[in-house]
Amino acid sequence: MANKPLDSNVQSTLQRGKACLRCRKRKMRCDGQKPACQQCTRAKKSDGCEYDDGKGKTRTQILRETIVKLEHRIRELEDPEYVSPSVTLFDPHFHSRSNSSSSSFGSPESSYLSTSHSPFPSDSSPASPPGSWAQLQGMPSPSPVSFSSDVYFDDQQSPFQPPLELAQMLLDIFAPHSRQCGLEIHMGRLRDSLTLPASEQRHPVLMNAIYLWACFISRPGPLSQHEEHYLRHSLDALPEALRSNDKTIDVIQASCLLSLYFLANGRLLEGSYHASAAASICMQVGLGGRTTLDSQGSPLGGIDSDLKPTMSDLRDGERILAFWQVYNLDRCWSVILRKPWVILDMSDPRHSIYCPWPQDIKDYENGHIDTIDALPTVRSFLSGSVSASSFSVPALRVKASALFASADRLSSSWSAKKMTTSVNEEMRALEHTITLFLSTLIPMDQLDAVLPEERHSLIMAHTLAHCATIYLFRPFALDDAMCFDKSSRASRACISVIKRLSDRDFAFLDPIIGPCWWSVADIIIRDLDTLERSWPLVDHSDLRNELGVLLYAMTSLSTRFPVVAPAVAKVQKRLASQ
């Protein structure tokens, strides 16, 4: 029987070396179809289907080659005598990862926020002493970096998303820092979603904001060169995300990440803009309110009223956490930027916060979601009420933000700056709440026993609570001995917190701790000036030593967050004076 001719387009076996890299690795039969074989398509791994036929570079090889080029460029900048290879030879069988090079990092000085464009008022606020953050004039921002986007995308790749391997690597870098950025999200599910169809993934506006932070926290490594790339793509994706009503949570989370990135880099107007945008969207959709039902049991309210937290799944837990992410950002940075809060919490039920206290993401994964209380969440806490669900680490962080902002607002409302009976009562009541809150925190000397992410959140809670005391008593400190003493004690307490920090902790601290430390430095400098004027012959080395501790901490933080750099210069100047 004659052999039946074989169709030229169909072969029973694929020629050796022609299978895709994924099928080769798993020793599976590959049909060699492009852009993705059937094996990868069935496994929903089309983005990871790559061929190494020696005729061209795969996306992975291009990325690795790019990293090598960046490392050579860094070495050139560091060592004038170093000569990088003029020709890069391509080895199609090179699959090892390049080691990240190290380099010294200095705060970029390409652009500064001038005084005329500062969001700060021209005159010092009553709650802002001379030399406070409200008078810092120059804020450094990252230098823009230009490079071709075709290094990262091919014709099959989404214009807003990097290749799968790079996306997974960036998520792995970001994951330990998610709470530092305020983003409470299930990282495991987020990573798994990268292999899902585009319609089932989180919006590129959020993903690119996460990739941006992964590059930012990688300073001074080569990845930091790509900050501008992901920043641009996140901002470009924002208008389309706003048109998608089902991506509102992604927009809110992304806006918070963008805001904090700008603020940490001293780009205060941009940071304030995105923080206000995130808070306004929260208010618009009623994310922090309680669900009101009509006679048919349907929710009433503004746009996307289904975004209000309900008794359901992990996604509802992320909605609760998204609201508190915005709340922390709005309350804390409004104090520093001297601007009004955007998220309202008033006696009017329409403008009150009823969102349940935030819990750990694992609790939501297990189905533990609190019901919405009949009492307003934050205002009940400030009035002395206690909720059993308000002692999770995320909830303690929210309480610290509430105390910090409340102390600033209360002290700013005392326009007469005269210690009246009503002022004294308000001061005592909030001081009592701060003291009770501090008693619920794990002591600093016991934080080594908690998880790293909880440790850094609790460090932030301790710092914000002590700074709340500083803000509360500072307006009367120069005229009232008791206020002077209590603000001084609070500043010393913050120094005690700093002394408990390890060098590793600095890489995981929330950027808001920088402005908090400047408030502490302001009090210590005030005390030092007062004592040197009153008792010039007395040794004040203890205060100078504490200022030195603070300077070391702020200098270490400024290498990560350039917004701290101007404050460091002011402390250095004071220490240098005799």
Automatic annotation (TrEMBL):
Q: Name one GO cellular component term.
A: nucleus
Molecular function terms, GO-annotated: DNA binding; DNA-binding transcription factor activity, RNA polymerase II-specific; zinc ion binding
Species of the source: Psilocybe cyanescens
Swiss-Prot/TrEMBL keywords: Metal-binding, Nucleus, Transcription, Transcription regulation
| Stretches the record annotates as Disordered | 97-142
Comp. bias intervals (Low complexity): 97-132
S-adenosyl-L-methionine as UniProt keyword: no
* Domain Zn(2)-C6 fungal-type, chain residue ranges per copy: 19-51
Q: Give its localization.
A: Nucleus
Provide one Gene Ontology biological process annotation: DNA-templated transcription
Family annotation (InterPro entries): TF_fung, XnlR_reg_dom, Zn2-C6_fun-type_DNA-bd_sf, Zn2Cys6_DnaBD
This chain belongs to the protein called Zn(2)-C6 fungal-type domain-containing protein
Q: What is its main location?
A: nucleus
> Keyword Disulfide bond: yes or no?
no
